[in-house]
């Protein structure tokens, strides 16, 4: 039996943070029903398509059900309220106050289901001067100062490769706090309202810089500190053939091993004396060999250095294959299969990997009285 078997979730969210949270809960056994506007959420229409829907929609919504509802319709709201009576968790991602205007805010919903766990995900939270401001991941990491720690330079700015705020500030805190609320409910019978602001957790990600600044008054700048590019021990160096080597030799034993392996001059091994000189010397050394040559040098050595792999290369790595990361699959409406999105749920808690999961067709869970078409839900 899966940990969340029997738990029912109503998911009013779109795009990434909330749908990924719903996917994690679904993978652990919860029954997740997406509540979509009559024309469907926008990510269904994204490109490229994989079957009738986008690959993004298929990845994030496999294993869920879908119902449609025009939340401006009294009849549809009544239908949603009837479902809430049997719901354990409600997740929504509208701007603050929108669900309340629909008569589906926490105060109204807990009158129907007093022990419900109600989770709202927004950029800046339900209150505060920024609460109503629109934004996306890049806005949240820039507004909180996280982006200022490493963004390249004026000639070549760098956009982070991960949606840190969406997943690390939205999805993960939502799942963690929903599970904490369920534990408390099991002990006390008490429901919960959870206010998740994607921007809040960005201060967690800036933990080292935040501590230095607040405690010591030493605020790191752009790429100038230990974990953001200011240290030779934590750097990315180009190879002769246009690939890159990632060095994370923070501990002295790893640094000593790395210096020996690459043949760094003794006078430059004290990386505190002149960090720029040590970085320059390592760039020259690593730039003299190809990625494959360095891969052979680092193989089996305790030096915390490796060649930067492409995502395609990493997806065929025997280590990750043996770990079972790609054992689960999804299937589209045409019967084509692809690996499921890797989610942080332990294998013993997940669904049977031998059966591929499908994303729901729009409104396929409506039943005998599907919602009539109408205007879009308010954003």
Task: Please give a structural write-up.
The structure is a single chain. The chain has 379 residues and is of the alpha/beta class. The chain has two domains: 8-203 and 325-349, Crotonobetainyl-coa:carnitine coa-transferase, domain 1 (Rossmann fold, 3-Layer(aba) Sandwich), CATH 3.40.50.10540; 244-307, no CATH class. The chain contains 14 helices and 13 strands. Strands 5-2-1-6-7-8 form a six-stranded parallel β-sheet, covered by helices on one side. Strands 9-10-11 form a three-stranded antiparallel β-sheet, covered by helices on one side. The protein has a two-stranded antiparallel sheet with strand order 3-4. Mean pLDDT is 95; it is low at 369-379. InterPro entries: CoA-transferase_III, CoA-Trfase_fam_III, CoA-Trfase_III_dom3_sf, CoA-Trfase_III_dom_1_sf. Residues 347-379 are annotated as: Disordered. This is CaiB/BaiF CoA-transferase family protein. It comes from Microbaculum marinum.
Brief overview, please?
This protein is of the alpha/beta class.
* Structural class label: alpha/beta
Percent range for β-strand residues: 5-15%
Write the CATH homologous superfamily of the largest domain: Crotonobetainyl-coa:carnitine coa-transferase, domain 1
- The gyration radius over C-alpha positions equals 24 Å
Overall CATH architecture of the largest domain: 3-Layer(aba) Sandwich
What is the ordering of alpha helices and beta strands?
EHEEEHEHEHHEHHEHHEEHHHEHHEE
| Spatial strand order of the main sheet | 5-2-1-6-7-8
Largest sheet: 6 strands, parallel
CATH class of the largest domain: Alpha Beta
What is the number of helical segments per DSSP (H or I, 4+ residues)?
14
Provide the CATH topology of the largest domain.
Answer: Rossmann fold
Low-confidence stretches: 369-379
Mean pLDDT: 95
Organism: Microbaculum marinum
Region (Disordered): 347-379
GO molecular function, one term: catalytic activity
Protein name: CaiB/BaiF CoA-transferase family protein
């Amino acid at each position: 039996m899966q940990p969340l078997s029997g738990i029912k979730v109503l998911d009013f969210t779109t795009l990434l943070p909330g749908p990924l949270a719903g996917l994690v809960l679904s993978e652990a056994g919860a029954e997740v029903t997406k509540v979509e506007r009559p024309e469907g959420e926008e990510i269904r229409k994204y490109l490229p398509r994989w079957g009738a829907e986008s690959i993004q929609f298929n990845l994030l919504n496999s294993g869920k059900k879908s119902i449609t509802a025009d939340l401006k319709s009294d009849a549809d709201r009544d239908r949603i309220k009837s479902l809430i009576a049997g719901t354990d968790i409600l997740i929504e991602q509208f701007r603050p106050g929108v669900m309340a205007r629909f008569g589906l805010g926490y105060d109204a919903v807990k009158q129907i289901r007093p022990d419900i766990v109600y989770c709202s995900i927004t950029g800046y939270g339900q209150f505060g001067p920024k609460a109503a401001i629109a934004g996306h991941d890049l806005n949240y990491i820039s507004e909180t100062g996280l982006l200022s720690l490493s963004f390249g330079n004026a000639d070549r700015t760098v956009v982070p490769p991960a949606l840190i705020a969406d997943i690390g500030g939205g999805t993960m805190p939502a799942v963690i706090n929903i599970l904490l609320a369920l534990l408390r409910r099991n002990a006390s019978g008490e429901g919960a309202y959870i206010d998740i602001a994607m921007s809040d957790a960005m201060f967690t990600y800036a933990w080292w810089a935040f501590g230095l600044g607040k405690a010591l008054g030493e605020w790191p700048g752009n790429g100038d500190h230990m974990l953001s590019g200011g240290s030779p021990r934590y750097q990315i160096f180009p190879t002769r053939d246009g690939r890159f080597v990632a060095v994370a030799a923070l501990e002295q034993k790893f640094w000593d091993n790395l210096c020996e392996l690459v043949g760094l001059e003794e006078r430059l091994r004290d990386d505190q004396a002149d960090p720029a000189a040590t970085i320059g010397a390592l760039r020259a050394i690593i730039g003299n060999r190809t990625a494959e040559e360095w891969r052979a040098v680092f193989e089996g050595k305790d030096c915390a250095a490796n060649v930067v792999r492409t995502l395609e290369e990493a997806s065929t790595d025997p280590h990750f294959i043996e770990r079972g990361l790609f054992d689960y699959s999804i299937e589209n409406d045409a019967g084509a299969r692809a690996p499921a999105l890797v989610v942080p749920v332990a294998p013993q808690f997940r669904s049977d990997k031998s059966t591929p999961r499908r994303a729901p067709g729009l409104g396929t869970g409506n039943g005998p009285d599907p919602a009539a078409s109408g205007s879009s839900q308010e954003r």
